[in-house]
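Here comes my example:
=====
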Amino acid sequence: MNHPDLGNYISNFRKEQGLTQEELVEKCHINVRTIKRI
């Protein structure tokens, strides 16, 4: 899976789950800056 595909996958998953980026990073224990780079 290349970088753009991974970003789309994460974005779609997050939206299907009804999560904001901030909620996702809290659940994943990563930095919000990291998720925004993906």
Notes: The chain has a mean pLDDT of 90. The radius of gyration is 10 Å. Residues 3-37 form one domain.
